[in-house]
């Protein structure tokens, strides 16, 4: 075997680079007036689940009217009426019209009875300063929305503003939020935390998109979520478009055992995923052959700009990022302190599987480690990896501490200099 250690020209000092990346720090979730804080609407006067003045009655009235605003107070509204319908009479709170909930610090707790909110096709829900918790998605996988969306199931338009979705679960997908085909979901200045998905298949602990939908996460925190298989924090579909801006994705876990499972922070299943001015830190893909501790791009288009990918871990490969074919582009992004374990343990910072394309420009690849090959960057034999104006230094691996080209591949270059293959 032959290994090569290369250090491309440094564009700027590490300190200046970090300041550039973090110029837009993610805002803390919660707080603030949350838009029309003084707006009038249907004021809920009791925490009881049902009857005059209740949250459930107010949702039903807004559905009947076609639209409405509900004003809560900083108390806990706990669901207690078991059953299944699409009229908000029992079980979850079905939204069939256009509803705004002004929470003012309120908590809506499903108490493990059902999910919390169900936004029906053609409907819209805006949550402001609300905590959504205690939801469990009902139904069976294989049906539309079945076993998905522990906190919120969105088949229409959902806006989560200055709110928290926490402590919800789903057997299939979308422990916190499930967005299904045709939906639009926006999460702004909010937190998705400590939600989880079960094993069937277990994707998108914080949020999961099924089919051709759109998701935008802005100035938010995706923290401490768990998926049994893929996308501990966020999961994007093959036909989906997801953008994550000025946000923090940290401490999430994906536990899938297959080599194309993982994506502790984010998983892109062939769609279009953009991550900009964000931090992807301390996420884990801990399955037997889990890959992509921070992000996993599976045959899709991934663009990462002005972002820090730091301290993530994967069992198999791609401690920071796993690119499984597809197209992966990193611009002014830092891969630092990521690690892969011993199965086989390749590509501490970034690992490319198969005939994909990776482009890295004006970044840093420093302090990453792999138990086997390519502490910084690892390119597959049929893959293409082009690195320009990027610092590659201080990475560790028994073979190819900074960079590694597998087999007889000839398409790995750093500032125009080809990295020789091992064959």
UniProtKB/TrEMBL annotation:
Protein origin, superkingdom: Bacteria
Residues making up the signal peptide according to the UniProt record: 1-29
Keyword presence, Cytoplasm: no
InterPro entries xrefs: Pectin_lyas_fold, Pectin_lyase_fold/virulence
Key words, A-Z: Signal
UniProt KW Signal keyword: yes
Disordered as annotated region, ranges: 403-423
Stored SUPFAM superfamilies: Pectin lyase-like
Protein name: Right handed beta helix region
């Amino acid at each position: 075997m032959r290994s090569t250690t290369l250090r491309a020209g440094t564009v700027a000092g590490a300190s200046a680079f970090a300041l550039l990346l973090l110029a837009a720090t993610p805002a803390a979730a919660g707080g603030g007036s949350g838009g029309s804080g003084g707006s009038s609407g249907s004021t809920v006067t009791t925490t009881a689940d049902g009857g005059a003045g209740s949250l459930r009655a107010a949702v039903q009235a807004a559905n009947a009217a076609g639209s409405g605003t509900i004003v809560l107070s900083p108390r806990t509204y706990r669901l207690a009426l078991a059953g299944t319908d699409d009229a908000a009479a029992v079980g979850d709170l079905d939204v069939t019209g256009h509803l705004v909930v002004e929470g003012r610090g309120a908590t809506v707790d499903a108490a493990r009875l059902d999910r919390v909110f169900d936004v029906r096709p053609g409907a819209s829900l805006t949550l402001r300063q609300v905590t959504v918790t205690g939801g469990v998605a009902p139904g069976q996988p294989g049906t539309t929305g079945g076993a998905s969306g522990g906190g919120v199931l969105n088949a229409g338009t959902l806006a989560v503003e200055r709110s928290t979705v926490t402590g919800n679960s789903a057997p299939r997908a979308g422990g916190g939020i499930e967005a299904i085909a045709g939906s639009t979901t926006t999460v702004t200045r909010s937190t998705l935390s400590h939600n989880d998905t079960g094993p069937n298949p277990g994707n998108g602990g914080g949020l999961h998109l099924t089919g051709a939908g759109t998701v935008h996460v802005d100035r938010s925190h995706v923290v401490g979520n768990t998926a049994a298989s893929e996308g501990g924090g966020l999961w994007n579909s093959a036909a989906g478009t997801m953008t994550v801006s000025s946000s923090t994705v940290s401490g999430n876990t994906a536990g899938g055992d297959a080599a194309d499972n993982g994506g502790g922070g984010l998983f892109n299943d062939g769609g279009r995923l953009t991550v900009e001015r964000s931090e992807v830190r301390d996420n884990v893909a801990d399955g037997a052959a889990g890959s992509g501790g921070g992000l996993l791009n599976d045959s899709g288009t991934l663009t990462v700009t002005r972002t820090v990918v730091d301290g993530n871990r994967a069992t198999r490969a791609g401690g920071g990022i796993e690119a499984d074919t597809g197209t992966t582009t990193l611009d002014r992004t830092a891969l630092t302190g990521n690690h892969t374990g011993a199965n086989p343990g390749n590509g501490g910072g970034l690992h490319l599987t198969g005939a994909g394309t990776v482009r890295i420009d004006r970044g840093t690849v420093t302090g990453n480690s792999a138990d086997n090959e390519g502490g910084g960057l690892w390119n597959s034999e049929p893959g293409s990896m082009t690195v320009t104006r990027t610092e590659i230094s201080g990475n560790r691996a028994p073979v190819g501490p900074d960079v590694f080209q597998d087999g007889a591949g000839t398409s790995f270059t750093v500032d125009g200099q080809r990295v020789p293959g091992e064959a």
